[in-house]
Amino acid sequence: MTSRPPAVLHAGTGPALELLTVPQVMARLQLGRSAVYDLLRSGQLASITLGRARRIPTHALTDFIRTRLEQEAA
């Protein structure tokens, strides 16, 4: 099964906002579904809900990784 490309929203002339699915975040972080949903539930990883679908903006994933790296370095 191949995954569909992520949705891209354009806000006027600003940069495109890429949205990732939970399976895409699972693959990027190499975590299981439960671990990703735990991060979403705890607010450590921001997301939006579109109907019943959960989407994670790429900047939210980048911010999460950056924050974790800073915590590890401290």
Topology:
Blueprint lengths: L6 E3 L7 E4 L1 H8 L3 H10 L5 E3 L2 E5 H16 L1
Antiparallel strand pairs: 1-2, 2-4, 3-4
Helix pairs in contact: 1-2
Protein name: Helix-turn-helix domain-containing protein
InterPro entries: HTH_17, SinI_DNA-bd
Attribute tags:
alpha+beta, HTH_17, globular, 46% helix, 74 residues, four-stranded antiparallel beta sheet, 4 strands
Question: N- to C-terminal separation?
Answer: 41 Å
Q: Largest sheet, order of strands side by side?
A: 1-2-4-3
Profile the largest sheet: 4 strands, antiparallel
Average pLDDT confidence is 87
- Counting DSSP E segments of at least 2 residues, the number of strands comes to 4
- What characteristic shape results from the CA principal axes? globular
Structural class, judged by helices and strands?
Answer: alpha+beta
Number of domains: 1
User: What is the number of helices?
Assistant: 3
What is the rounded Rg?
A: 13 Å
Which residue ranges are poorly predicted, with pLDDT under 50 across at least 5 consecutive positions?
none
Percent of residues in beta strands?
Answer: 15-25%
Structure description:
- It comes from Streptomyces graminofaciens.
- Pfam families: HTH_17.
- This is Helix-turn-helix domain-containing protein.
- InterPro entries: HTH_17 (IPR041657), SinI_DNA-bd (IPR010093).
- This protein is α+β, with helices and mostly antiparallel strands.
- The chain has one domain.
- It is 46% helix and 20% strand.
- It contains three helices and four strands.
- It has a four-stranded antiparallel beta sheet.
- Helix 1 packs across helix 2.
- It is globular.
- The chain starts with 6 loop residues before the first strand and ends with a helix.
- The mean pLDDT is 87.
